[in-house]
């Protein structure tokens, strides 16, 4: 029997508003802004094959990646919605080298986002996502934005979430009081609560890693992967972090993007991929580390810094960490 569908995201956000004495409607407004932008991006994605929106944009982002049109379109849509919403003073985006200062002196919040996750899957009709984190600014209102406003450890997040543009479009978020998932009903243009109080299985039998990296990873990780195979675990790797993470959160599993010889800090970005999903993971009873340290405790030292990521069912993350330790 499905979960109690019926409450819209808007009504759910309003019903939780009094959880935040200090935030009155501000945080709610930001979540509504993000939901609005995700509906617009969802429509662009669904039409990608029919409009000239697929393909490369023709420039390279600060990551050294060739930007896809949809990376740029999604970035514009989320920035525009957050600007119009009026509650945000600064944005860190995967697609922008520098902090985006919204020149909004009354904005109390900062958003870090990956506007389009899984770009390599856009043109081949495979699930992609959006990832976001929300922080309160730490410097005085009205003063110029400082780096300390945007480079906060993940344990300071006020909220985090992701949108999964998959076989259905879902928005999943936490404000530190559990994780709730909403499914988009296109015909009504509304997200409806479909996955209340999401909890991850403590253990699992799915491991997600790009095994093409085998020649570049530590002996300990090779051992962990061999142990997964010896236990007949399933290998599932979509190439879209949001999709792999969401499946593992629901079914139990671990997603690993490790340190490699070519990329010792791994590929994934701390501020708008690892931190956001780590907050959600822990709120759902799962775990997230860099193979040793809790992701949420990492003190950032640059906007687009990368980190190895081991995220998913707590028992699997612990076993992976232990195997890495024993191999040292
Ligand atoms: P993004 O598209 O936002 O740059 O992120 C892509 C990430 C993540 O979504 C995915 O799991 C990983 O890159 C895939 O990397 P590989 O192709 O190296 O496996
Ligand atoms: Mn990218
Ligand atoms: Mn990404
Ligand atoms: Mn991206």
TrEMBL record:
Pathway per the UniProt entry: Carbohydrate biosynthesis
Annotated ranges, domain Fructose-1-6-bisphosphatase class 1 C-terminal: 203-323
Top-rank taxon: Bacteria
Domain Fructose-1-6-bisphosphatase class I N-terminal: 7-196
GO terms under biological process: fructose 1,6-bisphosphate metabolic process; fructose 6-phosphate metabolic process; fructose metabolic process; gluconeogenesis; sucrose biosynthetic process
Binding-site residues, Mg(2+) 2: 114, 117, 273
Statement: the UniProt record of this protein carries the keyword Signal: no
InterPro entries the UniProt entry points to: FBPase_C_dom (IPR044015), FBPase_class-1 (IPR000146), FBPase_N (IPR033391), FBPtase (IPR028343)
Extent of the signal sequence: none
Keyword field: Carbohydrate metabolism, Cytoplasm, Hydrolase, Magnesium, Metal-binding
Protein name, per record: Fructose-1,6-bisphosphatase class 1
Organism field: Echinicola pacifica
Lineage: Bacteria, Pseudomonadati, Bacteroidota, Cytophagia, Cytophagales
Name of the gene this protein is made from: fbp
